[in-house]
Design the sequence.
């Protein structure tokens, strides 16, 4: 299976901070990468697809970049509702594996 | 607005078969991959498999010998069967629609495997 790693595993940040999360694939996945946000007790929510395309309705403070094996999710100015776990997921090779997640919590 | 809702038993005995159904409303069931994903308590997300509207399926090799996903287009439902369950299959099970990514999800249902 394709292996996905994320760093950091957790980050403590304040409202207004810029937060960057990195995702790395074990093989070239081109731009077949999505990012999801999950809050406690809720289903994941799609934020970014195709590595950099913003899902409809998602605030523009979220952005994604990268191609090949290295990808980044950036939250430009962290808001209170952004404290959550973020997962990357590759869709180039089946099974479409997820990264282990990055927890963003309050500093 | 597309809405997905999982249904099925919340408790399954070890060695038996877990069966869940996902009902789709508010959109077409055609031309999408209908997907099951699970999340053990406190852990990450695991892809189980999908069924396309043609009935074509694709399963996670780690579960392939035990998994069946099927689609009933007339009822706008798709189903998951996981046989010979153990405690390791205890998880929240989500159904989701796969387009370019997993854009619509059900709320999830916790299935506990008891001995």
Sequence:
């Amino acid at each position: 299976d394709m292996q996905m790693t994320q760093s950091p595993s957790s980050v403590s940040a304040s409202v207004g901070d810029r937060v960057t999360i990195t995702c790395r694939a074990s093989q070239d996945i081109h731009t077949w990468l999505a990012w999801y946000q999950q809050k406690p007790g809720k289903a994941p929510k799609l934020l970014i697809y195709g590595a950099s395309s913003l899902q409809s309705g998602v605030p523009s403070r979220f952005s994604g970049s990268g191609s090949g094996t290295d990808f980044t999710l950036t939250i430009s100015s962290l808001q209170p509702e952004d404290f959550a776990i973020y997962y990357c997921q590759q869709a180039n090779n089946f099974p479409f594996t997820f990264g282990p997640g990055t927890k963003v919590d309050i500093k | 607005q597309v809405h997905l809702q999982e249904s099925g038993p919340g408790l399954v005995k070890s060695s038996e078969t877990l069966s869940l159904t996902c009902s789709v409303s508010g959109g077409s069931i055609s031309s999408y991959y209908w997907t099951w994903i699970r999340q053990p308590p406190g852990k990450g997300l695991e892809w189980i498999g999908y069924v396309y509207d043609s009935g074509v399926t694709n399963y996670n090799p780690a579960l392939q010998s035990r998994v069946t996903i099927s689609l009933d287009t007339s009822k706008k439902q798709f189903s998951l069967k996981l046989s010979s369950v153990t405690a390791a299959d205890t998880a929240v099970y989500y159904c989701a629609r796969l387009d370019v990514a997993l854009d619509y999800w059900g709320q999830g249902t916790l299935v506990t495997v008891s001995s």
